[in-house]
Design goal:
heterotrimer, A mainly alpha (286), B alpha+beta (505), C mainly alpha (308), B: 505 residues, alpha+beta, 11-stranded mixed β-sheet, 4-stranded antiparallel β-sheet, C: 308 residues, mainly alpha
Chain lengths: 286, 505, 308
């Protein structure tokens, strides 16, 4: 019964088969839906039909088959779901890239150059972490106006400090490594050091954080829609559909359930992949 | 697995937390003795002169009596004043009841009425409602139980505005000051202030010495429940008796629940579209008419609003003074709309920003956008929060959005409060410049002669119908949720008089 | 350590000053509350008068200096919307947020930590894997979704719990669970990692190689050493919880600080927002310093400033 000690683990490849491929497959389906939306979706996601509101899955009207039902304006839920994949994935992806780039750059700079740079960057990180995300979101929207791009900006603004912290901590550990010191001694400039030596060594930890952030961004976009700060109507975002659908749970459960299921499955798949990645990088489990 | 030394402080904090919760509030048990009402937000202030929002109004209106009130049919009725006489175009004299006492047992005197008027019109006091009363230039006691108000020129909307003037006790306000009065208001109404747990609930207790119709419930508690779906859940679970502001779909859910029912009334709110006539494509009157032709009002009302609301041809509702039949506004005619837009050519394709805020019915906004897009216009929705929406909406024709959707209420049931701000050149809300309209609007507010006023407003309605700076959509209904045993008739001015409610036997 | 704390205190003051200034100017970029306070029928003159009586017509530098002066006297000002001191508002809402955060933390730890232990010790058992997936699933749902589902099931349909607001202990249950769901997976993960870390250490290997089972002394050591990273994470997770509390408080009408912050931001009630943000900044900075201290205990290479 000594399963506790790591050395008795069965071979990795067999153990991780389901844990890796199932979520990966799920994510691929969503990504494919996002890219192929205009070709795969049966109908225009914004086409309303006020006479076919709140109809259950399977309803047919005027030649339109509502496979997953219709929403509060008579639009086809399935088409909106497929197009919604674009929004959720695009917003999450773009905000992760944006916040990750800014955060990692600043974190690396702080961890490598130390001194004043470190103090300034980490204090700015502290300041940003102290401002409630919701405040930043509302102010950004009030100043810049609403819309898809600004949602991405808002998400990036609130999350970059987390990448900065991770990059900072990791850089501190790596910067003292012998080969980095050697490179400095050999005359390599800071840019080269940062991008050739430090970045490749911290990218693993950063990627793990990024995958988890991806799932969070999908959820946060939904939260912003709930608070009325997300993408503009009538854009089909899962978060907005879920938020509106809450009011119909007793009368038209499909409006919230299917987007909720999609959100849930996507984030779950990403989290599973993230956990898997984390396990692969974890020296304790080698 | 948590080390001992960490467990003890954790347990202590948990225990303290639990005790705090248990000791803090007595559970809001709905039932015969205690009416529980779910509002959207908690009141911002219970001082009747210090704020202007429905959540505060719902509560403090039961603590205070107003100079006059409206009965359930919407007619102006006596309250603190039993009768009134117009002495001249600018002077009106009220006879004050002599059997009213405040909650501290002191009598309500004409001095209190004068004090209240002066307080609300004092610029130093800073009342948001100042603009509604500042045509009153003098208030004085003019005899035993008589008060005379003098206005700066004829003010036809005076009585309608006085419906909103609450009478506060001079001796209390002067003794405790503005801040203390705000947290412990003293009035003469059917319910007295009991207790206010900030963020949780405001409790009122029945005033058994009330001069008028006494309330049925010994106690009433007003809670803040921002989410509409949660308000419905509270009604269905029986933990609240009355909930405000539901939409038609939630009302349908309530109907089928068996435990609670929707109660609705057509209010004085008029839903409308405002077109910025200074910017393309709405500088072209044909395109504006196309907008009016493109909107299927009945489709919106029956399809989305559950039939509660009522379509309207003019910018007023039947409960307004100045409402009239017979004005012909452009009707629903999608073919005509398409033609007019096509005729405008490229100018008709200019991008249109449809500005709105989350508090407005988003289903309607999206449906309107779809209808206009079907007619060939290029409309994008722009939702911003209420503060930003209001700021932009009053910023003048250059920056006002091309198209905006809103629901207007002046809380006065008078045409002057609706048409003047939306159309007159001097108003921040108006993106319309028409000297004829300006003249007619001024004529409407400068006389007490009802016939002359109706003539003037008839002209304005005609201008709106043909020039289409505004598209009136429908008279908006408000839907409350009430537990089945509650008997109440909501009024068009959205008042919530606890002493007009009862339990069904 | 002394020098470190002093340095951090200095930095904390700078940070808080930075936060206050940033929030001050950012907020004023969004306008002022005047439009929300006056009736629709207010004329531009009425609006100007209101703005003047609230003090928003003064030049922004003057307003800023007034704000700083008040702050130096520890006066957070008055809410223009609610007409009471900001401290009254914060004091009346703070206990509810603390209760909610505590409840959520108990739920998250109460489920997350045992699952983490299971995962560390019996990694391959199907039960552990199932629990791990469930915990992960809990973190994959938006709180407004899980919140309204719980209300529908437990309050409306089954009638076991009250749907919203405060009132008694039972009102805290659903909001705590809704909020705690978010952090369960984090605690499971960190517990598993910390335990695995400990289990691979020499003293454990020595004891096991001598044939000792997971005896009580071993468990005490394991618990004590593994708890440091767990507590570090808990300190950081609290700020996540406070952020997530905003939505939970809205759905369940729980009158905490999150709800009042959102409402005040939307109502442009600047001073309330400043007060809450400053309080939050103090808490976050305090927790970060705490986490840093604990972190440096674990990894001396990073100790408090580091060496080049």
């Amino acid at each position: 019964m000594n399963a506790a000690v790591a050395t008795s683990a069965p071979p990795r490849s067999r153990r991780f088969r389901y844990a890796t491929w199932l979520p990966l497959g799920l994510v691929t389906i969503f990504v494919a839906a996002a890219f192929l939306a205009p070709y795969v979706a049966l109908y225009d996601p914004n086409q309303q039909n006020l006479l076919a509101r709140l109809k259950a899955p399977g309803f047919v009207s005027r030649g339109v088959t509502y496979w997953l039902g219709s929403d509060e304006l008579g639009r086809d839920l399935l088409s909106r779901l497929i197009h919604g994949a674009r929004i959720s994935l695009f917003v999450a992806f773009a905000s992760v890239i944006l916040s990750g780039t800014v955060g990692v750059l600043l974190g690396m700079l702080a961890g490598y150059m130390r001194g004043v740079v470190e103090i300034i960057v980490m204090r700015v990180v502290d300041i940003f972490l102290s401002i409630p995300a919701i405040l930043l979101a509302i102010i950004t929207v009030a100043v810049l106006g609403p819309g898809l791009v600004n949602v991405i900006v808002v998400l990036a603004l609130t999350r970059w400090p987390r990448y900065a912290r991770v990059a900072y901590g990791q850089t501190l550990g790596v910067a003292n490594m012998p080969y980095v010191r050697l490179a400095t001694f050999m005359g390599a400039g800071p840019g080269r050091i940062l991008f050739r030596h430090i970045l490749p060594n911290i990218i693993g930890a950063v990627t793990v954080v990024a995958t988890l952030e991806f799932g969070l961004m999908v959820l946060f976009e939904a939260g912003l829609s709930f608070l009325g700060l997300g993408v503009q109507p009538p854009t089909a975002s899962w978060g907005a559909m879920l938020s509106t659908g809450r009011n119909y749970l007793a009368t038209a459960w499909w409006i919230a359930t299917f987007p909720g299921l999609c959100l849930f499955l996507l984030v779950l798949a990403i989290n599973l992949l993230g956990d898997d990645l984390r396990d692969r990088f974890d020296p304790r489990l080698q | 697995m948590i080390p001992m030394k960490n467990i003890r402080p954790m347990l202590a904090s948990v225990a303290i937390g639990a005790l705090l919760i248990l000791g803090m509030t007595d559970p809001a048990s709905a039932g015969r003795d205690r009416l529980v009402i779910d509002l959207v937000n908690e009141p911002s202030s219970l001082d009747p002169h210090l704020q202007w929002n429905p959540d505060s109004y719902y509560v403090y209106r039961n603590i205070f009596d107003n100079l006059v009130t409206r009965d359930d049919e919407g007619k102006i009725a006596p309250q603190v004043a039993t009768e009134w006489k117009q002495l001249s175009d600018t002077e009106i004299e009220f006879t004050i009841r002599d059997d009213i006492t405040f909650h501290d047992r002191k009598k309500l005197t004409p001095e209190d009425v004068v004090f209240s008027v002066n307080r609300i019109t004092d610029p130093k006091f800073g009342s948001p409602q100042l603009g509604q009363f500042n045509k009153i230039v003098k208030a004085e006691v003019s005899g035993p139980n008589k008060v005379k108000l003098t206005t700066d020129g004829p003010y036809p909307a005076l009585l309608a505005q006085l419906v909103k003037l609450s009478i506060v006790p001079k001796h209390v306000v002067e003794a405790v000051g503005k801040d203390a009065f705000n947290t412990k208001p003293v009035g003469s109404g059917p319910y007295a202030f009991g207790d206010w747990q900030r963020g949780v609930q405001v409790t009122l207790k029945r005033n058994d010495a009330y001069w008028g119709q006494k309330g049925v419930f010994p106690e009433a508690a007003f809670r803040a429940v921002p989410d509409a779906a949660t308000r419905v859940a509270n009604l269905q679970a029986g933990s609240s008796d009355l909930g405000v502001s539901l939409d038609s779909d939630l009302a349908a859910q309530l109907k089928s629940s068996g435990r609670a029912k929707p109660l609705s009334v057509l209010t004085e709110r008029i839903a409308y579209l405002r077109l910025n006539t200074a910017k393309p494509p709405f500088d072209n009157v044909d395109v504006r008419r196309a907008v009016a032709h493109a909107i299927d009002k009945e489709g919106l009302i029956q399809g989305i609003l559950g039939g509660y609301d009522k379509s309207s041809e003019i910018m007023l509702t039947p409960v307004h003074f100045g409402w009239m039949e017979g004005i012909q506004a452009p009707g629903y005619n999608p073919e005509q709309a398409k033609e007019l837009v096509a005729k405008a050519g490229d100018a008709g394709k200019a991008p249109i920003e449809l500005a709105t805020a989350p508090v407005f019915d988003q289903r309607i906004v999206q449906a309107v956008q779809q209808m206009l897009t079907d007619a060939g216009l290029n409309v994008t929705i722009n939702t911003s929060d209420m503060a930003s929406y209001l700021k932009r909406a009053q910023s003048g024709p250059e920056t006002v959005p091309t198209l905006s959707y809103g629901r207007w209420s002046c809380a006065c049931q008078d045409a002057d409060g609706v048409l003047f701000p939306l159309l007159h050149t001097s108003s921040g809300w108006s993106a319309y410049r028409n000297p004829d309209a300006d003249k007619a609007l001024e004529a409407g507010r400068e006389t007490l002669d009802e016939k002359k006023r109706l003539d003037a407003y008839g002209k304005v309605h005609g201008i709106v119908a043909s020039e289409v700076p505004l598209v009136p959509l429908y008279q908006s209904a408000i839907i409350y949720g009430a537990t089945n045993a509650l008997q109440w008739k909501p009024t068009p001015n959205e008042s919530m008089f606890l002493n007009r409610m009862d339990w069904k036997e | 350590m002394q020098a470190f704390l002093l340095k951090r205190l200095g930095q904390a003051i700078v940070t808080i000053f930075g936060v206050a200034t940033l929030i001050f100017f950012l907020q004023r970029l969004t306008g002022d509350p005047t439009y929300l306070l006056v009736p629709e029928t207010a004329t531009p003159a009425d609006i100007e008068a209101m703005r003047r009586s609230l003090g928003f017509d003064r030049p922004i530098i003057v307003q800023y200096l007034a704000f700083l002066t008040d702050l130096a006297q520890l006066d957070l000002g008055r809410s223009v919307i609610q007409n009471v001191p900001v401290t009254t508002i914060i004091a009346s809402r703070l206990p509810y947020t603390v209760m909610l955060a505590a409840g959520a933390l108990i739920v998250a730890c109460g489920i997350g930590i045992p699952v983490g232990i299971l995962l560390a010790l019996w990694r391959n058992s199907p039960v552990a894997k199932l629990l791990a997936s469930l915990v992960l699933a809990a973190q994959s749902m938006p709180t407004f979704w899980s919140g309204i589902l719980m209300i529908l099931i437990f309050a409306v349909t089954l009638g076991w719990l009250p749907p919203s607001s405060t009132g008694g202990f039972e009102n805290l249950i659903m909001p705590s669970i809704a909020l705690g769901l978010l952090s369960m997976a984090t605690f499971a993960r960190i517990t598993r990692t910390a335990l695995l870390d400990e289990l691979s250490k020499d003293y454990v290997r020595t004891a096991r190689s001598r044939g000792a089972g997971l005896g009580w002394i071993l468990v005490r050591h394991l618990a004590r050493n593994a708890s440091i990273p767990i507590i570090t994470v808990a300190a950081l997770e609290i700020s996540n919880l406070l952020a997530g509390a905003v939505i939970v408080e809205t759905v369940f009408a729980w009158p905490g600080l999150g709800q009042v912050t959102v409402q005040s931001i939307l109502a442009r009630d600047f001073l309330v927002v400043q007060g809450v943000v400053l309080l939050g900044a103090l808490v976050t900075i305090g927790l970060n310093v705490l986490a840093d201290i604990l972190y440096s205990i674990v990894d001396p290479r990073i100790r408090l400033g580091g060496v080049r």
